[in-house]
Write a structure and sequence with these properties.
This protein has about 325 residues and is α/β, with parallel strands linked by helices. The protein has 6 helices and 17 strands. It folds into 2 domains: about 180 residues, FAD/NAD(P)-binding domain (3-Layer(bba) Sandwich); about 130 residues, 3-Layer(bba) Sandwich (FAD/NAD(P)-binding domain), CATH 3.50.50. The strands form 4 sheets. Strands 1, 2, 3, 4, 5, 6 and 17 form a 7-stranded mixed β-sheet that branches. Strands 8-15-9-10-11 form a 5-stranded parallel β-sheet, with helices on one face. A hairpin with a 2-residue loop joins strand 5 and strand 6. The protein starts with a strand and ends with a helix. Bound molecules: NADP nicotinamide-adenine-dinucleotide phosphate.
């Protein structure tokens, strides 16, 4: 019986692991991927984490892992298939090869984060991995000197466009509105890149290509003065030639396996306030999987601490 099991090893899970060890608990961290860090690993440069301006996301993930590991957290690389609330303790079922095995714990922290959403247009599934990507830092190098399109207007899309502009000949940022959601500092960087062209008020209708992406068909929702796409390429039912398409249209929470145990909102985020308490005593949620306004590394790290504070109170109250 563990004191605390944490599912997920992104910033929220690793922060919870460190705080859990500081509270004197036996802590088991279950990670699905062979490397800790979560989404951070795929970020080229993190510019807004206090004290570490410009740190590479991979290095940051490694530092977070090292910190938790040095504190004596036990890590296991496995996929969780089920959680069960057995009252005074919780059961976590994981895959052990092709077999299932279970762990018991007094308290459980869900820190499984969120994954990239799909655009859900024709051609996307067929050309996934053949020019369609959801991770610019993972796949960007395949498009050196090429032309790529990034879809979205949030922090991820803008970060991806800036990253790709370092080595691609041309980067189109396709956004469905006439203003970006991304942080102002990122927008300033974006607008200073000469090889990035923002295609405003436009949506992707299809990703085209036989075996590889050859282009995207985009539809302009309205013609605004801001639409800067070069006239030569602006035809009706426009086909924009591109070697790759990076989709960055938001996230969906990795909470499918928890939804019958804890209450979630209509998008699947686990419902909890700043104290990270779900509706089930002894089960807490930290990071991007929680209902919250600001999904940042720093808020995920803060959740890890808050979730452990709540779990500690709960564990100490157990008879
Ligand atoms: P996001 O902030 O939710 O932005 C998603 C973008 O995709 C929005 O611009 C949205 O358009 C657009 N979009 C959504 N569905 C679409 C569709 N079907 N077709 C076309 N466009 C669509 O998501 P994100 O950029 O992935 O970021 C996720 C979270 O992580 C955010 O909270 C973000 O702040 C955080 N984050 C932070 C950092 C950092 O601080 N360094 C880095 C990365 C991510 P609308 O604007 O019209 O809604």
């Amino acid at each position: 019986m563990y004191d605390l099991i944490i599912i997920g090893s992104g910033p929220a899970g690793l922060s919870a692991a460190v705080y859990g060890k500081r509270a004197g608990f036996d802590v088991l961290a279950l990670e699905k991927n062979p490397m800790s860090g979560g989404q951070v690993l795929n970020t080229y440069e993190v510019d807004n984490y206090l004290g570490l301006p410009g740190i590479n996301g991979f290095d940051m993930g490694m530092k977070f892992h090292e910190h938790a590991n040095d504190m004596g957290v036990i890590f296991e690389n496995t996929e969780v298939t089920q959680i069960t609330d057995a009252g005074k303790y919780k059961i976590v079922t994981v895959l052990d090869g092709s077999e299932e095995k279970t762990y018991e714990t007094k308290a459980l922290i869900l820190a499984t984060g969120a994954s990239h959403a799909a655009l859900q247009v024709p051609g996307e599934d067929k050309l996934r991995g053949r020019g369609v990507s959801y991770c610019a830092t993972c796949d960007g190098a395949f498009f050196r000197e090429g032309t790529v399109a990034v879809v979205g207007g949030g922090d991820v899309a803008v970060e991806d466009a800036i990253f790709l502009a370092r080595f691609c000949k041309k980067v189109y940022l396709i956004h469905r509105r006439d203003s970006l959601r991304a942080a102002k500092s990122l927008q300033d960087k974006l607008f200073s890149c000469e090889n990035i062209e923002v295609v405003w008020d436009s949506v992707v209708e299809e990703i085209c290509g036989q075996d590889q992406v050859e282009g995207i068909r985009i539809k302009h929702l309205k013609e605004t003065q801001k639409t800067t796409l070069q006239a030569a390429q602006r035809q009706t039912a426009e086909l924009l030639a591109a070697d790759g398409v990076f989709i960055a249209v938001g996230l969906y929470p990795n909470t499918e396996i928890f939804r019958e145990v804890v209450s979630c909102d209509e998008k699947g985020y686990v419902i909890a306030g700043e104290e990270c308490e779900t509706n089930v005593p002894g089960i807490y949620v930290a990071g991007d999987a929680r209902t919250k306004k600001v999904r940042q590394i720093v808020t995920a790290v803060a959740d890890g601490a808050n979730a452990v504070a709540s779990a500690e109170k709960y564990i100490n109250s157990l008879p």
